[in-house]
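Dig into what follows:

_____
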Amino acid sequence: TIVEIGGQNFLSIPEGGCNLNGVKGCKEIVTELDDNFDYYCLAQGTTTTSLGIAQSIPKSAQLIVVPVLKGFNSKIEMTSVIGEKEYEKIENQLIILDEFHFGGYAKTDTILDEFIKDFNGQNSFEIESTYTGKAMYGLMNFLKSKNIRNKKVLFVHTGGLSKWKNS
């Protein structure tokens, strides 16, 4: 949206970049991959990234989203961005794990803290408790509870950290 302030025009981007242009940009995440996966997984905040990915993954794949907000209704939020007709096109590919918010946005507990500490100690990249830790915890729980094996899974690390570990 263009906003006029003091006689000058500025482009106003909604919090989190949640708009159709953001969704369109996030579609490119999948198009830049050299391979297809059975599952794609990421943390969900404003739904922008998850919508872009959902609209660009192969029809045979599923998208696992882990909302980080307590009481967040992914379907309502996603529909408000792309509309009911477009949501219906991706609905059967979505797996919404809304029980891994650990109390809400930027909240944590000892279970999540221990999981993140163990994960970060064993891997060449780190996760944190606001977004990626919750999503990874949810993904690992899902794969274990469904006994999913021999499938290709892509975890989309959406940030939240200012440094990467060197290995």
About this structure: The first strand starts at residue 2 and ends at 5.
